[in-house]
Write a structure and sequence with these properties.
By secondary structure, the protein is an alpha/beta fold. The chain contains 9 helices and 6 strands, in the order E-H-H-H-H-H-E-H-E-H-H-E-H-E-E.
Length: 229
């Protein structure tokens, strides 16, 4: 259980509620077909999935720009699987990836059920490092937009998790103190340690099957939130 009465629950979006890996795979399948990119999708994703996380970490620490993220995560993977493709086509794929990503809207098992359970009892919000225009579409198209009061994204905040500024901005927008808040997310560094730095209580949704830790309580299914809230 948590140290003090929680009134506001902040969720991460990708890898926490919205099944990024599944939706991303379907998006790549579509755009590869559209652009006649003849690669083995399974092999591509085997390399892409960890590389994408690496580049997002660089983006999160302001070491690369949004444009560099979108280009490099594809260029590096195509080079590694030894598939010849021009920069022009990579940029076209990158544009279409963003265009179609939010058209696939698989959520993690138990997402709707837990949001319906929490909504009458708590104020629900989103804090995301994702791009504003894409995240808004994901929330709307997947049918969960109406559960949340405040949507705080890194582009609007000007900083990314784990920067304390984005968590301060979220608390201010939600008009709540850290002590009465909880952050639920998949990323140990960005979501959990970032929130804890401001005194926000935390719950780690271990969707990546990371090693066990004692930093905060861990759940492996969203339904387990009911044990704590």
């Amino acid at each position: 259980m948590f140290e003090s009465r929680v009134t506001d629950v902040f969720f991460d979006l990708d890898h926490t509620l919205w099944d990024f890996e599944k939706n991303s795979a379907l998006t790549f399948e579509k755009i590869f077909q559209n652009h006649n990119v003849d690669v083995n999708l399974k092999e591509f994703l085997r390399v892409y999935t960890p590389k994408n996380l690496e580049f997002w970490k660089l983006y999160g620490s302001d070491k690369i720009t949004k444009e560099e993220l979108r280009y490099l995560r594809l260029r590096v993977v195509f080079d590694e699987i030894q598939y010849t493709i021009s920069d022009k086509n990579i940029n076209l794929l990158s544009e279409d990836y963003i265009k179609y990503l939010s058209s696939f809207n698989y959520l993690f098992s138990g997402t709707i059920e837990i949001l319906e359970y929490l909504k009458p009892k708590y104020n629900l919000h989103i804090i995301t490092n994702g791009f504003k225009e894409v995240q808004e579409k994901k929330l709307k198209n997947s049918g969960i937009e109406g559960f949340f009061i405040e949507i705080i994204d890194s582009e609007t905040a000007g900083v990314k998790k784990p920067n304390p500024i984005i968590f301060s901005a979220a608390l201010e927008k939600a008009k709540v103190t850290a002590e009465k808040s909880i952050m639920i997310g998949d990323n140990l560094e960005a979501d959990i340690l970032g929130a804890q730095a401001l005194g926000i209580q935390t719950l780690h949704f271990n969707s990546h099957k990371n090693p066990e830790h004692n930093i905060c309580p861990i759940i492996n299914h969203l339904g387990e939130i009911k044990t704590f809230l």
